[in-house]
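We modelled the chain as a single entity of 704 amino acids. Its sequence is:
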Amino acid sequence: MFSYPEARRDESCVDVYHGVEIKDPYRWLEDPESEEVKAFVNAQNEITRPFLDSCSVSQDIHDRLKQLWDYPKYSCPERHGDKYYFYKNTGLQNQSVLYVQDTPHSEATVFLDPNTLSEDGSVAISNTQFSEDGLIFAYGLSSSGSDWSTIHFIDVKTGTEYPEVLEKIKYSTITWTHDNKGIFYGTYLEQKGVTDGSETLGARDQKLCYHRVGTTQAEDVLVVEFPEEPLWRIGAEVTDCGKYLLVTPMKDCRDNLIYFTKLESSEKITGKLSLTKVVEKFEADYDYITNVGSKMLFMTNRKAPNYRLVWINFDDYAESNWTNLIDEDSKRVLDWAVAVHTDKLVVCYIEDVKHILQLHCLNTGKLIRTFPLDLGTIVGFSGDIDYSEIFYQFTSFLTPGIIYTLDLAKNEEPQVLREIKVDNFDPSAYKMTQVFYSSKDGTRIPMFIVMGADAVLDGSMPALLYGYGGFNVSLQPTFGVSRLVFIQNLRGVFALANLRGGGEYGEKWHNNGRLFKKQNVFDDFHCAAEYLIEHGYTTAKKLTIHGGSNGGLLVAACINQRPELYGAAIAEVGVMDMLKFHKFTIGYAWISDYGSSDDKEHFKYLLKYSPLHNVKIPENNIQYPATLLLTADHDDRVVPLHTLKLIATLQYTLGKLPQQTNPLMARIETKAGHGRGKPTTKIIEEKRDILAFMVKTLNLKFYK
């Protein structure tokens, strides 16, 4: 039995949804600036921190994580002008460093080291873009994991910083005019109040501006705004030819519009641009690939759930005149495409959650070649329509990373540019399989399973089951140190379930796990757990479920629905209040996946699974699994109040029950956000705490 802090309950806080009264006794936890909230956070950490630190093998776990993590990590080289750039982390650096070299094989020197920008590594590079001639580098910096950033500029030849800093940047691309004079970017300059990532207020009224390098932000030109649509986020991209600006507004987390304007000299950009509408309904995704004159190539799921490549001629853009370059494939999902070497396309497909990489002709769409790939994932690619060289990085659960290169101007096979090696890691000591299991409604669900090569399926292994299931996101095999520590040092089995709601099988797969079909995602996860138990991988008492963000919602909903099925639950930065999520920061954009309580039918459906509103005392003396909720004070994606309200509810409802001997705890990080840009030191500490929580609560043994 644990003694939890007494959190004040205000029973007078009641919201009325379509005539239904819903109590919200912890509404006061929604104010991050409140002293009472800060005291609540401290009280939670004062319980959780000693519990985690009391794990007898916590230091062993930390040492093993650091040992395995300490290997050089690289990104694919990218060519800009006559130089090549890549990121490298020597092993334990908090942030990866940007290097420059004359050729992909020559000596590299440091171009920009973000580790020098803060003592604790909490300042990270966000989005970046070189000018067309490669002589100016524009880059964003974010602090403490916030989605807010500032944009800076470096003269590539001299290495000197331009004096201006562009502020209040969020959800913005950076795209250069081809005269190398300036950039288009999105800003919320009129946003009032706190804008450091600790706020709960949503950003409104994004403006697209043009900035000329060497001038102040106050001199920037407002070129596009949609005052009648304050929640639109304005994407922008200058086409490969430099003659068009594409404007692609988004409102939710799917579907965008297409507008364009012709560009002449940037000197003529003096006010709002006149836009031509090409797509004016939010019905599909459109991702610009390249263009040949006025013919624009887009990747879209318009009338193609698995995506297709389509030409849209901006001189005659009626949909009846669109023509396919590459038709939709009924068996594979088109994941991405990049135009390279004047007249070619590198095209990447997902087939049964594995990547397939191909080269096609840009003029005809005809397949030229398929690149050899093992079972795994392309996590990095660089190539450009102006250059013949391409680079791509392959990884899998048991492959830290291999960077390949080839010159398309030559008839050659891909060559290994760099293979990433991890000390004290022997991939032959592990085995990876992909299985397919039946969900509650009979749908066939894929799942990857990784374990020791000599593992025996007698139910004795602890298991870690990870899932997401939302927003068209595909979870594919990638290398992860903490998973290996779990498998090797805790003798565990790791499973990755590819739930509906994701993008593994296209838009149909996504649609079958969103809105009124969200319960399918939870059923898929329950059935993944049952598969692992029934086939002798583990038992319910040794099974941990883990997810982050939408996956945190998944974990929290599943322990409410089937508490007896899980031994432990790790929910990171989860969406927990499904009735109010759209009222905070970027939450309004998730309505496309979740629906909104403002709608009566959606309200009734959301109420059925909302983690915050479904914490109940289980029947038959069943207890909830050991539960660890994680959040961070600068998470302006899924604000911390979701986690704070849920942990208060769990502890109040279940904390004093005699059968609830499993802990219900929260770990609230400082100077961190939703995950992006988190320094290595904090990542290792977080992974250590998650593994220590599992060791303590499931009584696991650490094998050195």
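As a brief sanity check on the tokenised model: Residues 635 and 673 are 4 Å apart (CA to CA). The mean pLDDT is 97.
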